[in-house]
């Protein structure tokens, strides 16, 4: 049975279960008059086996939310869980292991090691952990990304789209509980971007993965199942089955509100 708190949290999907969640998540940078509240008591459930996009105006707290959910940043208040593990309060070493073993990351800038081949990059986190990949799994990931004939290449010998596909394979190699993608198409041309988005989609549909993607691009968000909209450090809206047009319309509403606030500020100065 669901508690009302779980059902009310943005992102919750009854019957799915949550792969990550936060309650009262607050993150402030600095202190005193210069303090910036990047996240303001956020409650969120990330549904297992779904593709969730996070959108919002610049400075609304998207990256901060991702970093706090992924244990890349400490929180000022509140609690964060990955599965049943409360990550707020874990020691640095425990957090490092949790990120390495249970979370996959895809960044805008690929973050591949230039001296290693594609194959070595893909298995690097598992090699560091001293873990053997599940038989057949890494092969399945490599084939579904079309990387079989590129495995011996170094990053500089690959196109941007191919490098990002290697980064996706690395994120998936350990069969993580949750994959975080931070603007994964930001450095790609539209065709390569579509390939990466299609892969993240099939990682959810065909491989049973859970994905959270931060993006500025309504077209990218349209590949997700659910968009969470952040405004001023709070989740202010959610949209199931988004399309590029409906997401764009919702984002325009932020500009209208900002415009009104700007007018009010001018009026006050008068
Ligand atoms: N290290 C930091 N020190 C001080 N303030 C920070 C720091 N990181 C983020 N902030 C502030 O926190 C707020 C949220 O930032 P965040 O990067 O999470 O927003 P965002 O929605 O990801 O923005 P963008 O779309 O521009 O990347 C902003 O006001 C930002 O200036």
From TrEMBL:
It comes from the Bacteria. Keywords: ATP-binding, Nucleotide-binding, Transport. Signal peptide: none annotated. Residues 20-257 form the ABC transporter domain. SUPFAM superfamilies: P-loop containing nucleoside triphosphate hydrolases. InterPro entries: AAA+_ATPase, ABC_transporter-like_ATP-bd, ABC_transpr_LolD-like, MacB-like_ATP-bd, P-loop_NTPase. GO terms for cellular component: membrane protein complex; plasma membrane. One of its GO terms (molecular function) is ATP hydrolysis activity. PANTHER family: ABC TRANSPORTER RELATED, IMPORT ATP-BINDING PROTEIN. This is ABC transporter ATP-binding protein.
